[in-house]
Amino acid sequence: MSLPAPHPGTALDDWLARATVAPEITALRPDYRALLIVADGLRPGPSDEVSERRLAAAERAVTERYAHGSYEDDPHVVAWHEAFRAAGMKPRRTRPSADALLRRVPAGLPRINRLTDLYNAVSIAHAVPVGGEDLDHYRGAPRLERAAGDEEFVTTAGGEPVVESPGPGEPVWRDDLGVTCRRWNWRQCTRTQLTLATTRAFFVLDALGAMDDAALAAAGDALVEAVTEASPGVRTATRLVA
Questions:
Q1: What span, in angstroms and rounded, lies between the C-alpha atoms of 186 and 131?
Q2: Where does the pLDDT of residue 164 fall: very low under 50, low under 70, confident under 90, or very high at 90 and above?
Q3: Strand (E) positions, the chain?
Q4: Is 134 exposed, middle or buried (0-12, 13-18, 19+ CB in 10 A)?
Q5: Which residues are in the B3/B4 tRNA-binding domain (predicted)?
Q6: Are 16 and 237 spatial neighbours (Cβ–Cβ below 8 Å)?
Q7: How far apart are CA 87 and CA 73, in angstroms?
Q8: Could you tell me the maximum CA-CA distance found in the chain, to the nearest angstrom?
Q9: pLDDT per position as a tens digit, 93-132
Q10: Core vs surface per residue 172-206: b (16+ CB within 10 A) or e
Q11: What separation in angstroms does the CA of 36 have from each of 13, 146, 179, 187, 193?
Q12: Torsion of CA 237, 152, 45, 216, to 10 degrees
């Protein structure tokens, strides 16, 4: 039976409790953990003073951190390249999301909307892949598994909607309708993307052994702090899945 996304009044923890990471993912990377955060009561909208301040501060911090080196030498970025290769993916062609964001910092990250800007700030500040989904467009429990290759992934090409499928064995986040994020954290689908109307969101922070649990928890706390400042009164729930 399909499990719907939680409706107002449903315990967010109950929905998070249904999230799973498949054994074949753990076999591929025993050090993998996912910190899952659900937020209800968000105030959506375009980029604003709060999101700009936090994203600009994160950009400055990254610039200072790697002033005498390269973000590509960051242990967590290196670990994600290794994980992509182990899964048969080329990390310099389809980059882990934190890598893709960090390499754009010198030119300045694009400002997308206040919710996306907030989680991008956390991603670069902590060198951790972070994804955000609109919970009202989610269907069923979130699960991370290796794709069969026939799942649907809704994206755009040339400004037009298209339906693709992941490669067999590709690590994917999915729900009952199809793939929500390909290649662990490379590209999110359009069906569940955060928009100017999103009031409930599901965030995923992907960690490998180079980021210990304390550092992962700190990144999660930073995201909760950011969305709470941007949306006073927001309700959140968090779960670590491994």
A1: 9
A2: very high
A3: 20-21, 33-40, 130-134, 143-146, 153-157, 160-164, 171-174, 179-182, 187-188, 200-207, 235-241
A4: buried
A5: 78-232
A6: yes
A7: 21
A8: 54
A9: 999 999 999 999 999 999 999 999 999 999 999 999 999 9
A10: bbbbebbbbbbbbbbbbbebbbbeeebbbbbbbbb
A11: 10, 19, 17, 18, 16
A12: 40
| Residues making up the chain, counted from first to last | 242
Q: How far is CA 174 from CA 6, 144, 185, in A?
A: 16, 7, 12
Closest CA to 25 of 158, 138, 169, 159: 169
Q: Please report, to the nearest 10 degrees, the dihedral formed by the alpha carbons of residues 112, 147, 144, 41 taken in order.
A: 40
Which amino acid type is present at position 79?
A
Tell me the HSE value of 60 on the side-chain side, using a 13 A CA sphere: 6
Task: List pLDDT tens digits, range 179-212.
Answer: 999 999 999 999 999 999 999 999 999 999 999 9
Find tokens 């779960």 and name the residue: 239
